[in-house]
Amino acid sequence: MKKDMNKWLASLPESGKALPILSFPCISLLGCSVKELISDSEKQAEGMALVAKRVDSAASVSLMDLSVEAECFGASVRFSDDEVPTVVGRLINDSDEAEALKVPEVGSARSGIYIDAIRKAAEKITDRPVLAGIIGPFSLAARLFDVSEIMIECYDDPDSVHVVLEKCTEFLINYAKAYKDAGADGVMMAEPVSGLLSPALEEEFSSPYVKRIADAVMDDGFAFIYHNCGNNTPRMLDSILSIGASAYHFGNSVSMKEMLDKIPSDVLVMGNIDPAGVLRLATPQVVKEATKALMDECSEHKNFVISSGCDMPPLTPWENIDAFFEAVSDHNEK
Length: 334
What we know:
The chain is α/β, with parallel strands linked by helices. It is built from 17 helices and nine strands.
């Protein structure tokens, strides 16, 4: 039976549960490398299940691998044993290549592995929602143009950027629908590159396309959570909120309290413990202190859910992850 995700989201702040983007650290629980994990749907599903068994998270979130969709379009990807895959090089160099770009089939490259992983994870994890990770349209286009180059093209050749965004949006709608059909209870869409734009450019090149994807897949049984860890997000809030997402997730480059002060109280907001500087590199005590401080600072806002600022790096120590959840538990008891 499908979960009522609107009811689940509405009850989330009162539940006191955290919803970090926690997936890649499962490699140490599985005893495998990142390269092995991203190539095996059974390992991904088992990793999600092991994480769910170990921590009292509000939901199980799949790998936030932002290279998968670009690889489907033909981009080159660099793989590593202990780092998240990254796109290298530039696939689109001019307007002719933008026009010639083909929308790939869902299931091509590694996307089929990731969809199968969600299908298997949804069978293994039944005590909480299962959320699939997916990239946002502008962030996908940026990986095809190259992140630096797309910033220039937004001014020099905006028509080509829109051509590519149309194709990215078509693919991402199909991809999100495939996750939905596979049993996911929602998607968490990462659109971080748009957070580097000016508010006017974000309003033109990101939010309208994200909204089309959200409108195509979101319903009572399927949540659409928007993530952006760019530092310009406070300046583009009106545009971002126009997406009408089920919830919004922000990175640690912004003040969580500042965001909550600006966002309506009936809009669910998540974030934003530093995943690298704190969760990955600090001591368990520092993790506990940072988590406690953020929860105390935001406690007056009843629409806040504690989370990591972005996905936790693969080598994040489990002592630190445990400390994060211990701090959440201590805060709830208090």
